[in-house]
Amino acid sequence: MIMAERQISMMIKPASASCNLRCRYCFYADIGENRMTASYGIMKEETSDILCQRINEALAGEGRANISFQGGEPTLAGLPWFRHFTETMKQYPGIRTVYSLQTNGTLIDEEWADFFAGNHFLIGISLDGYQANMDHYRFDAEGKSVYYRILQTAELLKKKQVEFNILTVVTKKLAAHPEALLKFYLDHHFQYVQLIPCLPALNSEEDPHALTPKEYVSFYHRFFDEWLKQLQKGRPVSVNLFDNLYEMLQGRMPYQCGMLGRCTVQFVIEANGDVYPCDFWCLDEYRMGNLHESGFAGLLQSDAAKTFMKTDSCTKKPCEGCRYIHMCNGGCRRQNICYLNDEDCAYRKVLDHILPYISRLH
Asked: What are the Cα distances from residue 90, in Å, to 42, 61, 84, 86, 245?
């Protein structure tokens, strides 16, 4: 009998909430403002080493560790920090480590790119489409454009054969121009795209940048129609929502967290070693513990982890008797504010529109 490989997955914030950009909608800056300590600075090597030890303990010296680095801007921790971390993990030869990193792409040079290539990193580049939209939402601390710098990073990663995808935050403004967004991807030969909705601030349902259910429906209907047209012309673009729905229709699990509406602990590790169950909920009340004091198994037994796991996202009236309840269960309880309310579900309308076509794709 073939035994399944033991695995553990986590998200590490080596630079905490520190960032060299000042994006208008940053959800992690909002999280920082809602906890006692907004940012924990750069992770110390002592904490990094303990983290690697805890991974080894959790896997009993053998298995796969899926490690994602995010922020803030994780590259602010510096290339020496990342070299130290990857070299430390190599001290555990029974562990197969799979790395990914989400970055704003402004600090990547040839040395970084060579490091990513040599350690087989999958890179996510935050890029909100064409320049007019990017310059409106994402800029440096002096308010200056970073658009061309990020495009140069994408070209550098292509040159170094580093796998990467584009992550775009769909704001109210961008949602009005789905065809222009897809054209941007095609013009720049971006083959892999993640679309995520812009969220309102915590404890707020209204935000000048966040998507509403009406805009959510309009964007995805129009974006999908244009995407399908281009696909039929032999110009495919991999889009996270469409890819995940296809996998689910084939009876497989989606890779995107939250699509099934059943939360699991994700192990989000802050720079000081504090651990939280989800990137959206790195708040004081959800702190599970600290790696200096406990291993991953112990963290799962914390009251904060148990409270997080008990919360059911499917509480809205439109979920009652919904034909997609088995596929969705209300969706991600942080992101569903953009498409689900007590009166209506925009996601259901999107599924009605696109599933008949997705089911026929090969």
From this structure: 22, 12, 10, 6, 36
